[in-house]
């Protein structure tokens, strides 16, 4: 995957492999006095208490902020960050307490203004301020995602986030990370592991769709000892509809645009000993030149080709669609000779734009789908690359 907003998923070398006060220990922070300054001029019997204490620092982002009233009921509570962003919260039915609806952000100063009214209608107001904790590297968790702002991707693009550290509070993270589309279409996330969360709709995206990844993780407890640090939106666009089918029997690659045959190219898929996976495979990376080493897929010293042209990765395990200059042109469309990849005729250096491999590379987007059919191999696993389309929707939404 290309280096994006916060980094890139680093895959191995390419190879053609087929197979009241809160009781948290940080809730009160450091310093300050309980509550804030209540206005006594009104003669109100009501009192307002704010936790954490006024002036507190190193305050936990979850569970520490509470506002309560005695001898009266809360009428208004306003909590704002330094930049003026308001914190949504709820006053209880009896007016005795207020709690925020979500976690706070890290390393942020908040101000609180809370008013309560007693039985005679007299009001009192308390104001205070505090600053939340700033987790260090040991406590911070980041998601490395595979989409770039303002980029254009194919109709099969999946949003994949791989976290640096395991996530145990997966339900909370799933609530804080969402993907929306314009025009609207349901998009669901699926946890492949404690460190990988992918998103896709039930069917391929419609061309022209605007898709936005929303990361509201800053301050969220992702486990007992880690906090999220990201708070941003990333919007990209879905381009024209292109899908392709590589038929292991006919040894042809058929490209479809808008559901209609656009072009057919002769291909060479995996040989009898190194068959190509069946199934839907999404182009997740494009490289003009790829270093292909058989050792990366457990094939010993079978090959090492450092200058494979027009490489497009289809799986994390090393399946590619790529140019092949070391076989004669007569091979393609007639003999399967690869170690599990989809090979197309090319020239060394890939400088001839008229070759099938060059044309397919130049006319493909990351996010386009290449489906392999009629191979004797199994269907590729959904988590081997951006290939969740091979998992039924009913199973996808279960986790």
From TrEMBL:
Pathways involved: Cell wall biogenesis; peptidoglycan biosynthesis
Active site: 322, 341
Region (Disordered): 21-47
UniProt domain L,D-TPase catalytic: residue ranges: 242-373
UniProt KW keywords: Acyltransferase, Cell shape, Cell wall biogenesis/degradation, Peptidoglycan synthesis, Transferase
Official protein name in the record: L,D-transpeptidase family protein
Upper lineage: Bacteria, Bacillati, Actinomycetota, Actinomycetes, Kitasatosporales
